[in-house]
Amino acid sequence: MGEHFANYDSVLILSHFKGHAMGGFGGALKNISIGIGSTHGKAYIHTAGVTTESAELFDKLPPQDHFLESMADACKAVIEYKGAGNMLYINVANRLSVDCDCDSHPAEPEMGDLGIFASTDPVAIDQACYDAVVNANDPGKKALIERMNSLHGIHTVEAAAQHGLGRREYEIVSLD
To answer: For residue range 66-113, what is the model confidence (pLDDT) as tens digits?
Structure first.
C-alpha cells in the first residue's frame, strides 16, 4: 500500500489491537508506521534509522525505546503527509492474544473480547485500548499486560503524543 499512498485522499486505519513480540502491542500507531512502510522503511523503523536493508535488521536492533520512538516518528511523517483530518482509526480489540497476527504461530487468546474502538485520534485510541486491557475484570489479561509492559509498549503512545499527533486523554462514548 505504501507505494500508492499518494493516490488516496483519505485513509482508514483498521487495526487488530493485541500483543506484539517487538512493540508490546499493536494498534493504530503500529499500523500507521509499519503497515504503510515499504520493506526498506520497515527496516529503517525497526533499526531506528540505522539501515534500510531488511537482511541487516536483526543484526542492528536498537534499544527498545529507540525502536518505539522510531515508530512514532514514522507515524508523524505519515500523518503530516496525508493530513490528520484525512485519517480515521478503528481498533478491533478481540481475540486478545499476546501475539500479533504477523506471528506465524500466534498464541491463543487468554482474555475476552473488549469491543471495537474508533477515533480521529491515533494516540487516544491506542491509549484507550491499552487502558481497557489493564482495567478489564478478566483474569486472562495477565499475559497480555506482561507482554505490553515488558516491552514498554506504551512508549510509542507517549512519543506520538509528544509529537503532537494526538492526546492521551480521551472520552469513551458507547454506542450500545
So the answer is: 999 999 999 999 999 999 999 999 999 999 999 887 778 888 889 999
Predicted pLDDT at 1: 58
Residues facing residue 25 across a β-bridge:
19
What pTM value is reported for the model? 0.95
User: What would the pLDDT profile of 16-34 be if each residue is shown by its tens digit?
Assistant: 999 999 999 999 999 999 9
